[in-house]
Amino acid sequence: MASQRARLWKRYWKAVHAVAPAARSPEDVFTDWLLEAARPGRWLDAGCGRRSLADWRESDMQTLEQKGVRPFGSDLDHAALLDRPRSDRVCTASLVAMPFRDASFATVSANMVFEHLVDPAPSVAEIVRITEPGGRILVHTVNRRHYLALLARVTPFRFHRWIVSRVEGRAEKDVYPTAYQINTARTLERGFAACGARRIRGGTLDGIPLFLPYPGLFWIGIAFGLIERALAKLPLLCEVLRPNLLMEFERR
């Protein structure tokens, strides 16, 4: 099954790059930004889960360490921390009450975490608090204005969990409820500004076509996704056709 999925991914990228040579996974873009933004010193991956980088970018952990970056992680899911492939320093903690002193980290990142926050203001305040002055904060999350986020909001969570596990190959226990309370570029910028962090760069981020590992649907997903990417270049449609947000902030 794993080898079949790997073959489908190779076919997927060959088809996507034939039409859109510049198309890249949002996880790749996030990792590249992290490599640029990370400062020498301690880096906290807030909500780190089972791994801090996508499996195909795991070698970049070594690149970060060569820059003098020391990785730490925190997550509320203790079982996920126990399953991490690396022996980084991690702790079980909520974003609203992290066990770190003020200005503890040169860099803090939250990769696919903010969409789950029901009350994001305390979490934003904590992230800014533990970031040192001049330190960088990198947030990669879901754009609530995208139609898939809308679909997630209007369907039962059990359906969301079922469909994500089938399409993405994730275990259902790794699919968490979403709230989308701070999931636009404007609300993120406003939330961090209120806590003393200014926006450096970022906004909506192009996605890639859905990978649907089923006969027939495989090619439909690619075709629809490529059309979506093309339409997302139009100013009036980019807010609703780009599925992700990627933003970098600096603590004042």
Model description:
Strand 4, helix 5 and strand 5 form a beta-alpha-beta unit. The longest helix has 18 residues, at 2-19. The model has no long low-confidence stretch (mean pLDDT 95). The chain has one domain: Rossmann fold. It has helices at residues 2-19, 26-37, 60-66, 78-82, 120-130, 147-154, 157-168, 185-194, 217-231, 238-241, and strands at 41-46, 69-75, 89-92, 105-111, 131-142, 197-205, 244-251. The protein contains ten helices and seven strands.
Fold topology:
Layout: H1 2-19, H2 26-37, E1 41-46, H3 60-66, E2 69-75, H4 78-82, E3 89-92, E4 105-111, H5 120-130, E5 131-142, H6 147-154, H7 157-168, H8 185-194, E6 197-205, H9 217-231, H10 238-241, E7 244-251
Parallel strand pairs: 1-2, 1-4, 2-3, 4-5
Antiparallel strand pairs: 5-7, 6-7
Quick summary of this structure?
This protein is an alpha/beta fold and 252 residues long. It contains ten helices and seven strands.
Keywords:
Rossmann fold, 252 residues, globular, alpha/beta, 7-stranded mixed sheet
Low-confidence runs of at least 5 consecutive residues: none
Distance between the termini: 49 Å
Question: Which homologous superfamily in CATH is the superfamily?
Answer: Vaccinia Virus protein VP39
The number of helical runs is 10
Apparent shape:
globular
* Strands side by side in the biggest sheet: 3-2-1-4-5-7-6
Number of domains: 1
Strand pairing plus helix content: what structural class? alpha/beta
CATH topology, by name, is Rossmann fold
CATH architecture: 3-Layer(aba) Sandwich
Major pleated sheet: 7 strands, mixed
User: SSE string, helix = H, strand = E?
Assistant: HHEHEHEEHEHHHEHHE
Q: What portion of the residues fall into strands of 2 or more residues?
A: 15-25%
- On the 0 to 100 scale, the average pLDDT is 95
Quantity of strands, as a count? 7
**Rg from alpha-carbon coordinates:** 18 Å
The CATH class name reads Alpha Beta
Helix content: 40-55%
